[in-house]
Amino acid sequence: MRVGFFGGTFDPPHKGHLAVARAAADRFALDKVLMAPVGLQPLKQEHGPSASFEDRLQMVRLTAAHDVRLEASDVDAPLTGQKPNYTLDTLTLLHAMLGAETQLFAIIGADSFRQFARWHKPLQLLEKAEWIVAARPGEEFSSGWGALEADFPEAELAPVRHRIHFLTEPDQDISATQLRHELQRGVVSSEWLLPEVAAYIREQQLYRV
Ligand code: ATP
What we know:
- The protein is of the alpha/beta class.
- It has helices spanning about 15-25, 55-65, 85-100, 110-115, 120-130, 140-150, 155, 175-185, 195-205, and strands spanning about 1-10, 30-35, 70, 105-110, 130-135, 165.
């Protein structure tokens, strides 16, 4: 089995996330993509998510229902004591859950890859999975590499270089931060939102100031 792990805040999930998950599944022949909202992202600790984990998971379920290969996952649910969720721990857990037969692919956007050198133990992360980096307008794939090259000697990078793959499609200019700003102003019918997610946000009155 070839399984993708697509973690994120998903606050809220949008059409850009759906397009990335589907494009990764198409291009890398993934049998399944787990879309996993994170309890607390280590690099976004000061401004935690706006919507609760349960609401974000429910919105991800509505998103995943658009493609049989996609599945919402609570593997990155909040930890006790407000501890951040480290991707290295999540990938270790997934390996244990899915078994040695499964090949794991972690999916991130190019903006996340730009910060990858700041993630907890980046070289070990590259050893744990194949990485699919999706294009995002205004983000250069090379800036992520540049930061890794500045932090690690080539002798350490060389063995893991081949584990990073770039996905140039779908390249959609959609951001959850911008969406939340719109929603706070009362604009709920954005073309960036899936209709089911927009309806859920309206019903649950999420993202209101
Ligand atoms: P924000 O704008 O608040 O940073 P976001 O839209 O990036 O939010 P996240 O939930 O943080 O949403 O994203 C989860 C993952 O999806 C991250 O790896 C992010 O880089 C990636 N991603 C999000 N939106 C896009 C997009 N439009 N194109 C490519 N990747 C994306």
